[in-house]
Amino acid sequence: MTFKGFILVAILLVATGSAASQDKKLDSFTISYASVSGTRAPLWIAKELGLFEKYGLDGNLIYIASGVTSVNALLGGSVDIIAASGSSAVGAAARGAPIVVVASLGHISYKLIAMPSIKSVQELKGKIIGSSRIGAGSDFALQRLLPKLGLTPGKDVQLIPTGVSESDRRLLMMMQGKIDATLGTEDNILQLGNRGVKFSILADLYDSGVYTTGSDIVTSGQLLKQKPRQLKAFLMALTEGIWIGRNNKELTMRIYRKNMKIEDPKLLESMHKNYLLGSIPIRPYPNEEAIQNDIEDLSHTLPHLKGKKAGEFIDLSLLKSMDEEGFFKRLHGK
Question: Roughly how many angstroms between the first and final C-alpha of the chain, as a whole number?
Fold first, then answer.
C-alpha cells in the first residue's frame, strides 16, 4: 500500500470516532513521557492522527525529563498517565505512592559502549561508566549488568550519574572524555558509525539476561477508579498507534523525523525496525520479569520490597477488558 493510500485508510479509521467525538465534549487527558526516544512513536502517532479524539479524549502530550518528576506530577494531579521506566514506578509505590503499571511499550535494546581504546570488558577496570540518574532504569541496568561481566561497581569501576537521560547525549560526553563508557541503543550505534566515530561495543544487555523496560505506562489507583473509561480509551488509542506504526514505515519515519529531528533515512528505517517491528509489543502488556528485576534492584535500598512480586504493582484490568471485548482481534484482523 502506498503512503497516501495508508494515510487514507488511517483517516477513515479515525473518521468514525472523530464524527462521534464532535457530538460530545472530549475529556481532557494529559500524558507525560520521560525521554525523547523511539519507544514514544505510538504516542506521537496517536496525537498526529487524532486517535485520542477518536476515542473521546482531548489528549495532551508533555515531556518531563525524569521518571521521578513524572511520578510526582501524576500524584499531584498534573497528568493522568505517565510513560517512564518501571523502576520509577516501583520505587514510588514502595514508598507508599498509590500507583500501578497498566501497560508497557517494551524494552530498550541497550549495548554497553566504550571509548575505542577500551577493547574488552577487563579493560574497563578503573574506568568511569556513566548512567543517567541514581535510581533510573539505566542506572539499575548497569548495576545488574556489571556483576554479570565480572565487575563490581565502586570497586572495579566507578559508576556515576550524569544527570542526562538521553543516551545519545551521554555518548557525546563519552566522546568528550568525561566518561569512559555508557549504555547506548542500536540507533546510537548507527549514528556514531555514520559520523565516522570509532567506539567499542562490550556487551549486549538483553543477551546478557538484563531486561530493561523502555517505557512502562503508569497511572494512580485513584484515577483507575475515577477514570476507567478515559484510561481505557487512552490504551485503545495507544494500541492503534502501535498497529498503524507497524504497518506503515513511511508514516513512522515521518513521525520520527518531526519529533526527534532526525533526517538520516538509514537511521529512521533502523528505528522503525528496532522499535515498531521489534521491542514495542503489539499488545502492550507489561513484562513481569522486568518489573521483578526492578523490585530486586530496589530492595537493596528499600528492604521492605524483599519478597514482593511484580503482580502487586501491576493492574491488567483495562487490557484484559479490551482483550475480552475483542479489541485486539478487530484491530489486528486476527
Answer: 19
